[in-house]
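name: query_chain
kind: protein
chains: 1
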Amino acid sequence: MKKLFAMTAAVLLLFSVLLGIPAAYGQAPETGKTLDILFSHDTHSHLNTFTTVVEDEETDIGGFAGELPTAELYLRATAMACFCPVMQWHAEPRSGQFYATHEDGFNNDRSPWNLAEKLNAPEVLEVAVHYARLRRRLRPYLVGEAANCVKARRPMMAHLCLDFPDDERALACEDEYMLGRDLLVAPIVEAGAKGRAVWLPAGTWRDFFTGETLTGGRERYAECPLERIPVYERVRSDG
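structure:
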């Protein structure tokens, strides 16, 4: 039975990464501790889930119901979703359980082309396309890490404490996570922020976007326009 469960989990996780189909459950947006910017789920409650038995977690870009998100919120959520096990958006119909507007002609579609039109913000579509292309380039890494997570029985998206248990700053960190074994992600979670402080645990890291090599065991400030999210690749001595 245990072997069958592991095989089933492996199939679901790999298919979720390959096809973009969530193989786990989402969380209610009102649960847990909140941040200034809420994606459809709350970052803190996500991290609580990541440290348990859930191998695969997903977020709904820009929420799935209620008022439409701002362009900033949508793009920050898109950036984070690009570095989640599953990258997706979906929306409830107007008659859905969280229906929150009575505006005539309201369109709840959370696609980037609809948001770009409704918000009169063409940059939404431009930046969303950038992240969609980046996601395709990440696919080989994600597939490999999905397989490893099933084998190692660890979440694919994990709190820093799982990889750096002796690092007190990592243990206290509530808004960074590891995607697989080698990518540290620090999403922007405050409205209007142009950057953020990032704690890099001990070791050598490479800025995912600029290629700059950094020494860990210290905090650094990362500037972050809408087309960027602080992501760092762990550089291993074994190559």
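note: The first strand starts at residue 58 and ends at 60.
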